[in-house]
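Handout, page 2. Input:
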Amino acid sequence: METAIRSVKIVPPRRDVPVDDTWDLGSLFSSDEAWALALDEWELRIPGFAAFAGTLASSPERLAECLAYDLEVDRAGDRLGTYAHLRASEDQAASEAQRMTGRFQHIATLFGEKASFLRPEIMEIVATMATAPQALAAWLALPVLAPHRLMLERLVRTRPHVLSQPEEKLLAMQATSAGTAGKVFRQLTDADMKFGSVTTGKGETVELSNASFVTILHDPSPQVRQTAFHQFYGQYQAHANTLAASLSGSVERDVYVAKVRNYPSALEAALFADNVPIAVYEQLIAAVRENLPAVHRYYDLRRRIMGLDAIHHYDCYVPLVPEFEHRHTWNEGVRLVVESLAPLGQGYCSRLEQGLTGRWCDRYPNAGKDSGAFSSGTYDSDPYILMNFQEEAIEHVFTLAHEAGHSMHTRMSAESRPYQEASYTIFVAEVASTFNEQLLTRLLLKRAASPKERAAILVREIDSIRSTIVRQTMFAEFERTIHAFAEAGEPLTLERLRAIYRELLDAYFGPQFVIDQQLELECLRIPHFYNAFYVYKYATGLSAAIALAKQVVDGGPQALEAYSSFLKGGCSKWPLDLLRDAGVDLERPEPVATALMHFGQLVDELEAVLGGHSQAR
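Output:
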């Protein structure tokens, strides 16, 4: 998951960055020249698919041979694509790296075209055997297909939702037009809408944009925050009808595809891929709803600490302990992260420390470098991490812990599972990363040298749960509601979208919170709504991480072993089964309820520490 990192004003060109502060991509390729040679060799394998086309039904051996060839090609392509992506992320202005990315994408597209027969032919085999389940079971039980059994079984599971070849072709031909709503949204909000500029409390003039909006809301001046909020949403108001039509079109597309593929609803179609029952989604919303009084109490506490008569949405981002910050060099940050992860055992920690102090990471900003942070590795390489580390920001230490969680998850799965079972899904990805953040929070709370320092850490954890569990669940409830309206034949007009969202704002923020009318337009600016029913995974992921962190810290060797097995699981089981084996059952309401109970306890402690101290108005 990409993590937002604050930018710096002056950064060096890539050529001036010390080598030891950059990643060593040697576990992928020794040089660009070695990569180019491997790309040429990979391209020569394109014709190899032609020999398999039309032959897969002839025998299980032939099917296994083709699947093995496809895996080899995919594995090699993964290394090539990752190397090109990482080189390009170092400096977006570097023409050679951009050319590498373009060359890879071109050849990968050719491979996709030549291998496009694979899925239809396999589904044809499944369809032919559908009337004789014993024959299909016999094929899947053969040793020659054992390496591919998981993939085949999951493909067979999709059979009720796969159409005839002509129908599938028609759907495929709609792929480009299907993304029109999202394209309209992005072009309008990122390119056409102009928000002007805002003068900060320090007297600096800053351009207001989708990227800078939340940063400006950190300003201590209430007037600056209010001005930025109304100025920003003024543009959304001016384009509200267009944005409502765009969102409605995206929802209608979801509903259409679900109906065509014989799913009961768009929600169930989205949950099908991860084999997640709809009850998990419903229980998440119910659990958060039940615990909203604690959230409302936090907003009122925030109001009192800030010395406000009334609290608005634009007051929710201001640091409550702005004077607290410690500098951490890279190595100090690494040591802090590794020390916090001690409950995971010496093997995990020593390996991580070696990678982070070595050359897994591209550490600091440079001109043209990708913003943010990410973890990216392959089955056959080191798990690389891109950072834009700033020593004065404790949040960057948390980002390092987060991305380290992804990287160790990737490495442990790769070393424990065959290639085709090593890639874990998004549903579990955010568990490993936020788990590490939980352990870092625990260490910092234990080490806090003053009430103010402890309060700063408490606020960070409270806001993390609020934004990741509570806010994302509100988004999830909105998605569920608007799709249900569309499925019932109710048009999603601007007025209806605003009314639905206003009801949610009133419920989630509480009776003492001032809901500015402009905030109803927030539903028109969330990019995730164009990839429906995705955001709930953030909420379930952090809920699971909170529960697992407590089990590992408070439990014995069995709890650690169960969590380690989860990190090694890849996609060998369904996400819910992997988590259940680790000790968290998301089909029950307890994990989310426990996370929100933890939230309430944090609010209680923060009130005890800061409740009597308010900032000057």
